[in-house]
Amino acid sequence: MDNHYYSIVVAVDGSIESEYAFRKALDIVKRNKDSWLSIVHIIDTRAAAVYDRMVLENAQKDTEELLNKYKNEAVSAGVEQVKTVVEFGSPRSMITKDLNLNADLIVCGAHGRNAVERYFIGSVSESIVRSAKCDVLVVRTPESLK
């Protein structure tokens, strides 16, 4: 059994939970020689349907800035192979099925929503765990920061 991860995908959304997921993914990439990191953000089109084009363009610009910040941090930490992906769609299906990133590991944050919020909003991390064909690491934020 090979315990080496070559393609590590981290899903980020600007939250403190995804910040912790990025940090964890960065540590994993550095420990796995010759691996690469894909930093992914999916702009949820269900929420975007109510906004006009300018709002969506601003969301894309802000997302690209966030991902470039993460990419620069990864490169500064010694990770040579880093790419960023910004797409529009459903995070639930795009991360595990539609992006074709050939991930060995997907890292994402857990928002810790309550049962009612999960019912109405759904849990992206739960969906990733259920549909991924690779290992998934769901990172929780320390209680002291919530």
Q: Give the helix level as a range of percent.
A: 40-55%
**Strand portion:** 15-25%
What is the correct CATH architecture? 3-Layer(aba) Sandwich
Count of discrete domains: 1
From the spread of the alpha carbons, the general shape counts as globular
Query: What is the CA-based Rg, rounded?
Result: 15 Å
Number of strands: 5
CATH homolog superfamily? HUPs
CATH topology: Rossmann fold
Q: What are the segments in which pLDDT stays under 50 over at least 5 consecutive residues?
A: 114-121
Q: Largest beta sheet, briefly? A: 5 strands, parallel
The secondary-structure element order is EHEHHEHEHHE
Q: How many H/I helices?
A: 6
Global mean pLDDT: 83
CATH class: Alpha Beta
Structural class: alpha/beta
Distance between the termini: 37 Å
Strand numbers in spatial order across the main sheet: 3-2-1-4-5
Pfam family, one: Usp
Main location: cytoplasm
Keywords: Cytoplasm
Domain UspA: 6-140
Please give a structural write-up.
With 146 residues, the chain is an alpha/beta fold. It has one domain: HUPs (Rossmann fold, 3-Layer(aba) Sandwich), CATH 3.40.50.620. It is 46% helix and 22% strand. The protein is built from six helices and five strands. It has helices at 16-31, 45-48, 53-76, 91-98, 115-121, 124-131, and strands spanning 7-11, 36-44, 82-89, 105-109, 135-139. Strand 1 (7-11), helix 1 (16-31) and strand 2 form a beta-alpha-beta unit. Helix 4 runs parallel beside helix 6 (124-131).
